[in-house]
Specification:
The structure is a homodimer of 154-residue chains. The first copy, chain A, has 154 residues and is mainly alpha-helical. The first copy, chain A, is built from 5 helices and 2 strands, in the order ααββααα. The first copy, chain A, binds a DNA duplex (30 and 30 nucleotides) through helix 2.
DNA sequence: CTAATTCCTAAACCTAACTTGAGGTCAAGT
DNA sequence: ACTTGACCTCAAGTTAGGTTTAGGAATTAG
């Protein structure tokens, strides 16, 4: 198999673990671009395996198709993407990832102290939502999400 | 406001930051139970603020409505949930959370070494997908997802 | 050459988690 | 009493990310 060989959609599906229909969908969503052969069938470059791997990974990270397309579009049009290009993408991903992890850790750490103690069960947990004062700050379960009462300044 | 007071759906919405329609939806999905007044309007207990906060938090964690309902149903029917009840719920949540965090961290750590170096850009990155040998292992972007080549046994 | 695969498009369908709209009722203030 | 705003139900619509189906055309194996 020469590097000039093109892959059919079925082959690409096998290599990426995606379904054929998903790849067509990604094509329609402009995440990949396919050449067409004489008979109108899609032909993909081998580098599309990596491109689709990237798509799958980003989905794991919680990125939407739109966001992934945006990331991919920062790649250069004509030329081969270089280290700097990927580093650029990598930076925004790390950012997103770090904040996701931070949120989860914050939630987890509060979980033991707050849900674990039975806060949510009844009327009088000072820690979770003292005297219902939380309402003054607006809506939502603020304390568990990082906007904690002064008490627990740890 | 006495502890015996009940909240209207609008008041509950204000206190939780949820929309009225979302609360009706959760009611229909049996995440909360509403009493009805003489005129047929929903009346909620103040503890439902916490219940809905819990729902919102669990959604942040990536739990589906079905999963949240299951968690809530482990709470006792007649009696007030106690420490042990919540600790029980807390345990399954931590489990879920820890693995979520672990996955994200693994992905993040591989990101710098792998995407950051330009692996996805072209043909010859031994680390990412040496000689395309990855195909033997089945589908998907395995290496970045934890199934790394022997090289990097760190 | 023929049969079995694979591929094509377009349109419909699917699930989750809600929102919106229509048509009507209830509650609160004056 | 009246008006306004909050509520009610039920059905349909919405978005994301695909899958399924129908009816054909192209490719590949023998």
């Amino acid at each position: 198999m020469k590097p000039t060989d093109r892959l059919s959609i079925g082959q690409l599906a096998e290599r990426t673990g995606l379904s054929v229909s998903a790849i067509r969908y990604y094509d329609a969503q402009d995440l990949i671009e396919a050449e067409r052969n004489a008979g109108g069938q899609r032909r993909f470059m081998r580098s599309d395996i990596r491109r689709l791997s990237f798509v799958q990974i980003m989905q794991q990270f919680g990125f939407s198709i739109d966001e992934i397309r945006a990331l991919l579009q920062t790649l250069p049009e004509g030329r081969t993407p270089n280290k700097a290009d990927w580093r650029q993408i990598s930076r925004s991903i790390r950012h997103h990832l770090d904040s996701q992890i931070e949120t989860l850790e914050k939630l987890r750490d509060n979980l033991d102290g707050c849900i674990g103690c039975g806060c949510l069960s009844l009327r009088n947990c000072e820690l979770y939502n003292p005297q219902d004062r939380a309402q003054k700050k607006g809506a939502g379960p603020r304390y568990l999400l990082g906007d904690k009462p002064a008490l627990e300044t740890r």
